[in-house]
Amino acid sequence: WCGHCKNLEPEYSKAATVLAGLENPISIAKVDATEHPEAAGTYGVKGYPTIKWFVNGQDMEYSGGRTEADIVSWVKKRTGPPCKPLATAADVTSFRESADVVLVGFAAEGSVEFKTLESA
Q: Is 4 labeled as catalytic in the residue annotation?
């Protein structure tokens, strides 16, 4: 195993434990590409470690960091609800201050625009 793989392994394992313990558990897996080169070839793996993200069977490159916190954060952002209802001005302020960049859509509940935001 290369140094990058050795460094990623404990972080990936910790992330797997955290994600499996969520209210809506998320499973992550690992493949030893040296033992299963056909799997690596199928998904275009050229170097190690490589992390792939699958949605509806379609793979894409993982673009997050290599720590447990980075992996968990990246996965949660892609698996959580598309939008979060904000009921008060205080909720908007709190959400606005939660990250460097946020998007807040204002629409009447039940409107086409509201339904579009909910399903985004």
A: yes
Annotated catalytic residue, options 4, 41, 80, 105? 4
Active site annotation includes 3: yes
Instruction: Decide if 66 contacts 11 (C-beta within 8 A).
Output: yes
Which pTM value belongs to this model? 0.70
Mind listing the pLDDT tens digit for each residue in 21-70?
998 899 999 999 999 999 999 999 999 999 999 988 899 999 999 999 99
Annotate the chain with DSSP letters as a single string. --HHHHHHHHHHHHHHHHHHTSSS--------TTT-HHHHHHTT--SSS--EEEETTEEEE--S-SSHHHHHHHHHHHHS-S-----SHHHHHHHHTTSSS-------TTSHHHHHHHH-
